[in-house]
Amino acid sequence: MKEKDSxxxxxxxxxxSEIAMLGTNADQGxxxxxxxxxxxxxxxxxxxxxxxxxxxxxxxxxxxxxACVYFVDFEKWMGLTLVxxxxxxxxxxxxxxxxxxxxxxxxxxxxxxxxxxxxxxxAEWGKYYHNLTITAFEI
Amino acid sequence: MKEKDSxxxxxxxxxxSEIAMLGTNADQGxxxxxxxxxxxxxxxxxxxxxxxxxxxxxxxxxxxxxACVYFVDFEKWMGLTLVxxxxxxxxxxxxxxxxxxxxxxxxxxxxxxxxxxxxxxxAEWGKYYHNLTITAFEI
Lengths: 139, 139
Description:
3 helices, globular, homodimer, alpha+beta
């Protein structure tokens, strides 16, 4: 029950968050974090982002797909960490699916721009924090 | 000039942030992120946090001190990643320095509670993001 409740609160946080923090394994064994626009999600299991193919994060993920995604509500002091793997997708369907009006400012050549990639993060487990309590769960 | 300007903007972001995201190397090669109260900072070079000695993050850092700290302004879409190492401090002076009124809710035995530790993160380099531009700098 406690797990189910935490997963639901975590999902509410994901659904209302515009920005997520993506954690990757960077060079020389250092972790790296950057904020990303959360484009779409399928429950807590899958989260889609877009990125420049030439970006550092894409290079890091092509070497090591292990990743985490963090959502936070600063006012309510709630946090959700999802742990899993993140794939770089280049297929036309995924690129079309994620494309939004105005994306030309990131990817000048449009939806077929080779510098436009989709990131699909798939969670294996997660941790929800609120009120000094951490609840872990499989996803 | 651009570096100096980005470092100053990054420092302004650190100074006004109450919460930072700490990235660590967790078990089985996965990165992990969690929000932390930023207790004190010395420019961009040093950042102090407090934590439970028994916490997962303390265990992770005792195995591998490589870490990163991320600050974000959701409204202005600014982000700062600092990369370096994070030490666990148990000495009385550090513990006294970081102790705040009300900390008993985290560390029931008070300032000498063995479950109370100080984390000192020391940055080696950083990356500042704003307006589609990333600037990297040594610290």
